Structures are given as structure tokens and as C-alpha cells.
Amino acid sequence: MKPTLLVLAAGMGSRYGGLKQMDGLGPNGETIIDYSIYDAVQAGFGKVVYIVREYFRAQMEETVRAKYSHVKCIDGSPLEFVFVTQELDKIPAGYSLNPERQKPWGTAHAVLMAKDVIHEPFAVINGDDYYGKDSFRILGDWLRAHGTTSGSYCIVGFELENTLSESGGVSRGICFYDKDQHLTDVVEHLNIAREEDGVVYGDNSTTGQTHVVLDGKALCSMNMWGFTPDYFDKSESIFKAFLDKNSQELKKEYYIPFAVDTIIKDGQGQCDVLSTPSRWFGVTYKEDRPAVVAKFKELADNGTYPSPLYQ
């Protein structure tokens, strides 16, 4: 069974100041998504679904199909690509939205856009985050092992200290789990940074506490999830309840952690917390770009990746 990779690539990256999904950061102009797809193929994935916005779909699709036309899965079959758009008016029938609203409805809404094109176990990742080879291997193995299990999901947790930016504070959801590694909660923290004393601090958005000492080894979410297809129906039902309360809101969004938390609290499923030794990096801020370019060069120079990545 070959799992599918769903790439969330609809965001513009307001803090970064441009369309990060198309930014060439590797030695030969490779994008972060290029590396994610390379790692996913090596981990046994067989299809890639892009969630994009309509205004840049044609450009994205043309670029992707030209770049990956010759790429094969590990069994020799062609790698399949599907493009799906996320727009704010793509909501269930019977609901209306505030005509002044401009933004789509968040990451869990984006995942729902792929309901009709994914019928197998699938992973969800951000298009502007580098997750590392080990993360895709761990997630691919889990998806194959749980492919026929309903209500069983997972999240790949990264050590918090492996996800910080040198250019400013970041927001991270810290994972809490029981003795069986089942997720119990994801608590959002803002303005996380390592300060001069070497300690990691952040603001707890739930309690309102600021400058809280955080454990650098704590596992946090970088929006790398694993789902079985039954997730779609559960999430759609939760989204309808969300719209019952928020359809006229201008900014409220339907996020994956909220959907998963609701499923867990309602007893409809459980979510395994997987850990990875990989170090995350990405371009949260435009100032992060030189360091990311240097890191990809290092990974090419030491043989971790071929250069160019795709011949």
C-alpha cells in the first residue's frame, strides 16, 4: 500500500513576504517542496496532492509537471500528481459566508478539499517546511501499518529546540500525550525563542502566561500528520458544527489540531505521537532564507541529497 502525500501550499507567507512555495533555495533552485517530495518517494509514497489557490494553480501545475514528469516511485511506477484548490467559498451546502471575508478557513478546511481525490492513508505537511528524511520514513511506515485501521491517526512531533528560528520568535503547538503515546492535547505557544541565557521561553496562548520556561526536548507539532481516509467524514462533520457558530466571522479558521482534538474528545479516534530525530528548518521570516540556502548546500555537499535533486 502506497500512502499519499498532501501538501498544504495555499498560503502566501505574509511574514516571509512572498510565495515561499515557488522559492528556489537548493543549490540548483530546488524548492523546499522538492526535498519533501524526494524524501516521501524514498519513503514509499505514491501520490502527491497539492492544495493551492486558484490564482496560482496554473503556474504551480505547469512547473510541477515539467519538473517531476520522469520521477518514479520505489516500485518503478510513475509518481502521480493531483491539484486541488482551496477557496473561502468552498463550504458545505446550506451555509453562507460574510461577503467581507477574504481568507480561506484554515488548515483543516484545506485538507477537506482533497476528500474526493484521496482514498488511501495519507500524510499532511506544510509546503514551506523541511521535515527531513527520517520523518518521512517514520510516517510512511506508520501509514502502511495502520492503513486499514479506522479512527487511528498520528502526528510527527519534533523536539522544540530543533524548530526554532534565529530571526525571531515562532509559534508552536506543544504536544501532550499519555503513557501509550496517544495525543491528549496540543497547547499553542507564541513568541518562542532561545534567549541569551540558553533557556527557551514562550507565551502560553491558552493560559495567557507570558515568558514561560519551555522544555527544549518537548515534542511539538510542525503540522506533519498521518490520517486514514475515514478522517474526512469526521472532519467534515466537525467543520459543519464550526460553521454553525462561525460562518459569519471574518478571521476565525478551522485548524487541524482542533479537528483532531474534537475527534479524540468525542471518542471517535486516537492519535499516536511519533518522534523524529530530524531537525526542522524553514523560512518563517525572509531573514531565514540565507541560512536555509546554506543548509541545503551542506546537505548536497555531504551527499545527503544528489545535486541537482532531479536530473
> For this structure, what is the CATH homologous superfamily?
Spore Coat Polysaccharide Biosynthesis Protein SpsA, Chain A
Q: Would you tell me the overall average pLDDT?
A: 91
Low-confidence stretches: 12-18
State the oligomer: single chain
What is the percent of helical residues? 25-40%
Main sheet record: 11 strands, mixed
Rg (CA only): 19 Å
Number of domains: 1
Reading the helices and strands in chain order gives EHEHEHEEHEEEEEEHHEEH
Mass-distribution shape: globular
Give a brief rundown of this model.
Helix content is 27%, strand content 25%. The longest helix is centred in the last third of the chain and has 16 residues, at 231-246. The protein is an alpha/beta fold.
Structure, explained:
By secondary structure, the protein is α/β, with parallel strands linked by helices. The protein has helices spanning 32-42, 54-68, 107-112, 133-145, 231-246, 256-265, 289-301; strands spanning 4-8, 47-52, 80-85, 122-126, 129-130, 152-159, 170-177, 183-194, 200-204, 212-214, 219-227, 270-276, 281-282. The chain has one domain (4-301): Spore Coat Polysaccharide Biosynthesis Protein SpsA, Chain A. Helix content is 27%, strand content 25%. The strands form 2 sheets. Strands 1, 2, 3, 4, 6, 7, 8, 9, 10, 11 and 12 form an 11-stranded mixed beta sheet that branches. Strands 5-13 form a two-stranded antiparallel sheet. Mean pLDDT is 91; it is low at 12-18.
SSE layout and pairings?
Blueprint: E1 4-8, H1 32-42, E2 47-52, H2 54-68, E3 80-85, H3 107-112, E4 122-126, E5 129-130, H4 133-145, E6 152-159, E7 170-177, E8 183-194, E9 200-204, E10 212-214, E11 219-227, H5 231-246, H6 256-265, E12 270-276, E13 281-282, H7 289-301
Parallel strand pairs: 1-2, 1-4, 2-3, 6-12
Antiparallel strand pairs: 4-11, 5-13, 6-11, 7-8, 7-11, 8-9, 9-10
Helix pairs in contact: 1-4, 5-6
